[in-house]
Amino acid sequence: MSSESLIENCMGHEIVGAVKEVGSNVKCFEVGDRVGVGPYVNSCQDCNFASIAGVYVIVEVPKEVKFKTVNLIMEMRTIAGSIVGGGTQETKEMVEFCAENGIYPEIEIIPIQYVNGALERLENRDVKYRFVIDIGQHLELKPRVGPWSCMDKIPSRF
After folding, report:
1. For labelling, which of 22, 95, 116, 150 has a CA lying 20 to 30 Å from the CA of 53?
2. Looking at the domain assignment, is residue 91 inside a domain?
3. Domain extent at residue 70
4. Where would I find the Alcohol dehydrogenase-like N-terminal domain in this sequence (predicted)?
């Protein structure tokens, strides 16, 4: 897409953007409202989330959300929420804030060979910490709570 585009394409064929103008008969939207189109509008219908049993994830706090209950039931849809939002700058600020205030994730470092076992544990809800996959086998393989002693081995992305 061009850099001048006002609408972004998201994973799963959804389209999101902001209302730029409204017609005189439009009552449900105002200029500046965040809006989106779900995966059914002109989607390929090939990906899992465009067919059945998909998940609608709400990442902002909208004024109101309406769903057709029959669609949720018949299409085996799930509604989920996440406070994760923003882009690279917000993520950078969050990571810096956490580092400055001693806030660290609880992680379990696993070797790449254990990925299938990790997926099974996720399915069985037998996960206590977030998995970090050590592809290069450079990290100490054990659960970590609190500051990472291996932080100097993890390259900074910022």
Report:
1. 116
2. no
3. 8-81
4. 10-48
- Polymer length in residues for the chain: 158
In the chain, % of residues over pLDDT 70: 63
Has this prediction a pTM greater than 0.70? no
> Residue 158 above 50 pLDDT?
no
Residues forming beta bridges with residue 144, ordered by sequence position: 107
67 and 21 housed in the same domain: yes
Paired tokens of 57: 């994830």
Instruction: Tell whether the torsion through CA atoms of 145, 147, 151 and 156 is positive or negative.
Output: positive
d(CA 119, CA 108): 13
Q: Could you tell me if residue 108 is inside a domain?
A: yes
Token match 């970590």: residue? Answer: 144
Residue 96 lies in a domain: no
Is the pLDDT at 150 greater than 60? The verdict is no
- What separation in angstroms does the CA of 64 have from each of 28, 60, 108, 137? 11, 11, 38, 47
**Structural domain count, the chain:** 2
Answer whether residue 9 shows pLDDT above 70.
Answer: no
Tokens of 15: 């389209």
